[in-house]
Specification:
The protein is α+β, with helices and mostly antiparallel strands and 144 residues long. The chain is built from three helices and nine strands, in the order H-E-H-E-E-E-E-H-E-E-E-E.
Length: 144
Amino acid sequence: MKNLMTIAAVVLSLLFMTACDKETVIPEQNVPTEIKNYVSAHFPNCSISKTIKENDENDEMYEITLSCGVKLEFNKQKEIIDIDGTTKLPDSVIPTNILSYVNSNYSTYYIIGWELQLGNQEVQLNNNLVLVFNMAGEFLRVDE
């Protein structure tokens, strides 16, 4: 019985390891054009420092680290889904309704992060406050 449990544990461990994401660092010349265009349009003073392509059974993602410290995530369709920084993000990466709301209601703060999350959009301000908006950019709530 003890051997059977040991064998089961080993088999489960092997299954778990093969089901994990596969990450590959890809050279800049292999970064998809859509992603390069996004970076050059919105972060013209930054260059791509590192690109990781994640593959699992159901999805593919790209994690981009820029020379200016910003991290970007793109989905399989090469659409932006997450932006994390420590300084003010360019206005061009924030949807207009959200940017207007933040400028009107939190004028002394600025946005350092934006993310698509469960059918909503979230922005993080430099005071660590997280604001949640629907996909149309209408304010929903503050997350702590």
